[in-house]
């Protein structure tokens, strides 16, 4: 990050991580927190509160660890409904995950989205210094640079999309899609998770925005040339592996195996989101039990799926569907001494998760569509290299582009998934070790530090300012 030595880093995201509680935060918060501490800077976003009054929100600032400022604003109920629940989570989230059927387009949502991006920009602008480097994150903030530029910002502005970017055929279903893409071009660097995502973006630009793609990956349209490239996100492998190997983790693994007839554990850990393919996963597990009665009382599947975005109807529906499926599977196969499927609808501390990953012989990560999926990488990092478990991974998770040695499945094909579970449960030690060591090498090579530094290096190399 040589070019950034003299600049502050300003991270902008919808939610701001609690840098004082690192142990409970995800790898992303830790990685960005590390970068902020070493470079110095600001993390700006929503404080999670909803307030009554309208008008320009009050910016609260707090200095942590000497050189990092946390700056937050609250949101009004209208902003929350229209920007967060509305445009972000009823339009962009479903469409970007290829679920046009679940999207709900309302003009007020788009107006609310633009308004909150403008509010964010207006609140942050006075805190910015001329040589700051600004890095905005995720689908909530696609028009943030447009609003900041409108206020005269000339700094380098980067954006990273944590979720997939859909093919143009789907993207153009969003009524305001052309405005959104034009606004996105006010960033200097736009990062995507996979080559599939960046190709979808380039296709849109060339086929529908009269733009062109240069040989070196730069993309030109709307009178601007930006870098649009892949930066697959990783995790802090050492940190997660260490969390899985403490004595507390060992006693949690021991508790998992105590007083049970079960010999093998399968685990899934996902927010309860319709993109995660949970009903399909439950049905595939039922198929495994139907076709392989030798697993009765020998295998258990634990699905941890905490609630998320519960005010959006599609999320309420998926919860009802899963509760029905888990009840049916346990009712059909369970016995007084065996629960085939344990469904836990809560968040779990990070260290417990790491221990559970290490204690389970099979990890199921089978989303119908996912930007990257960090759980896949965490499962690999947590394994005991002497007797590692097997990762079953959807080909529609961004992680599948890198993690070739996992058992790659089509999450819509229940038979294929049941067969993969069976293969994983029976895989000989030698093959498990071979696959795991290749996967571990990959996640170490492209860890979260690599992700952060490669993005910031590209951003630092751009000429600052709006005009090219
Ligand atoms: P997404 O960003 O869509 O939620 P990812 O798999 O990329 O999916 O990231 C999820 C993160 O949240 C991971 O770091 C994972 O460990 C964490 N997580 C998921 N489920 C839980 C849970 N039940 N309790 C605690 N952390 C969880
Ligand atoms: O990429 C999905 C994501 O935005 C994560 O970054 C985040 O941890 C998660 O969804 C939580 O979503 P929300 O902020 O809507 O609760």
Structure description:
The protein has 16 helices and 16 strands. The radius of gyration is 23 Å and the shape is globular. It has a 10-stranded mixed β-sheet with strand order 3-4-2-1-5-6-7-10-9-8, sandwiched between helices. It is an alpha/beta fold. The model has no long low-confidence stretch (mean pLDDT 93). A hairpin with a 2-residue loop joins strand 9 (218-221) and strand 10. It starts with 8 loop residues before the first strand and ends in an 8-residue tail after the last helix. Helix 2 crosses helix 3 and helix 8 (237-243) packs across helix 13. Helices cover 43% and strands 19% of the residues. The protein binds adenosine-5'-diphosphate and 6-O-phosphono-beta-D-fructofuranose (F6P). The site of adenosine-5'-diphosphate has 14 residues, from helix 13. Residues 26, 269-271, 304, 306, 347-348, 353, 372-375, 378 line the site of adenosine-5'-diphosphate.
Number of strands: 16
Please report the number of helical segments. 16
Strand content: 15-25%
Helicity, in percent? 40-55%
> Which ligands are bound?
adenosine-5'-diphosphate, 6-O-phosphono-beta-D-fructofuranose
Distance between the termini: 23 Å
Shape: globular
């Amino acid at each position: 990050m040589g070019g950034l030595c003299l600049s502050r880093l300003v991270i902008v995201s919808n939610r701001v991580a609690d840098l004082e509680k690192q142990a409970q935060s995800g790898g992303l918060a830790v990685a960005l927190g590390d970068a902020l501490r070493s470079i110095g800077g600001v993390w700006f976003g929503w404080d999670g509160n909803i307030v009554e009054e309208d008008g320009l929100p009050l910016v609260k600032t707090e200095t942590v660890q000497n050189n990092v400022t946390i700056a937050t604003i609250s949101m009004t109920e209208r902003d929350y409904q229209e920007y967060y629940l509305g445009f972000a989570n009823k339009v962009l989230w479903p469409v970007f995950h290829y679920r046009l059927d679940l999207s709900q387009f309302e003009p007020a949502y788009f107006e609310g989205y633009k308004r909150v991006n403008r509010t964010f920009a207006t609140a942050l602008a006075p805190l910015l210094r001329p040589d700051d480097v600004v890095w905005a994150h995720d689908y909530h903030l696609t028009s943030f640079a447009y609003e900041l530029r409108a206020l005269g910002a000339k700094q380098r502005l980067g954006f990273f999309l944590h979720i997939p970017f859909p093919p143009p055929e789907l993207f153009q279903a969003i009524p305001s899609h052309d405005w959104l893409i034009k606004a996105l071009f006010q960033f200097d660097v736009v990062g995507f998770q996979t080559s599939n995502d960046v190709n979808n973006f380039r296709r849109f630009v060339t086929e529908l925005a009269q733009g062109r793609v240069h040989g070196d990956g730069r993309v030109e349209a709307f009178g601007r040339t930006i870098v649009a490239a892949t930066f697959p996100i990783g995790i802090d492998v050492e940190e997660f592996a260490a969390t899985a190997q403490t004595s507390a983790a060992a006693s949690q693994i021991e508790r998992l195996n105590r007083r049970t007839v079960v010999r093998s554990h399968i685990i899934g850990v996902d927010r309860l989101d319709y993109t995660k393919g949970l009903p399909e996963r439950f049905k595939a597990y039922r198929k495994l039990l139907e076709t392989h009665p030798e697993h009765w009382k020998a295998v258990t599947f634990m699905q941890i799926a905490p609630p998320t975005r519960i005010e959006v109807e599609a999320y309420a529906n998926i919860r009802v569907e899963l509760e029905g499926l888990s009840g049916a599977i346990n009712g059909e196969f369970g016995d007084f001494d065996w629960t085939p499927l344990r469904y836990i609808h809560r968040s779990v501390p990070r260290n417990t998760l790491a221990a559970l990953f290490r204690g389970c012989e099979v990890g199921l990560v089978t989303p119908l569509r996912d930007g990257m999926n960090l759980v896949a990488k965490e499962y690999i990092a947590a394994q005991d290299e002497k007797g590692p478990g097997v990762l079953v991974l959807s080909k529609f998770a961004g992680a599948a582009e890198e993690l070739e040695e996992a058992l790659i499945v089509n999450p819509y094909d229940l038979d294929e998934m049941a067969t993969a579970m069976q293969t994983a449960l029976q895989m000989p030690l030698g093959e498990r070790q071979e696959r795991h060591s290749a996967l571990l090498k990959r996640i170490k090579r492209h860890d979260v530090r690599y992700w952060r530094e490669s993005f910031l290096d590209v951003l630092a190399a751009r000429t600052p300012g709006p005009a090219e």
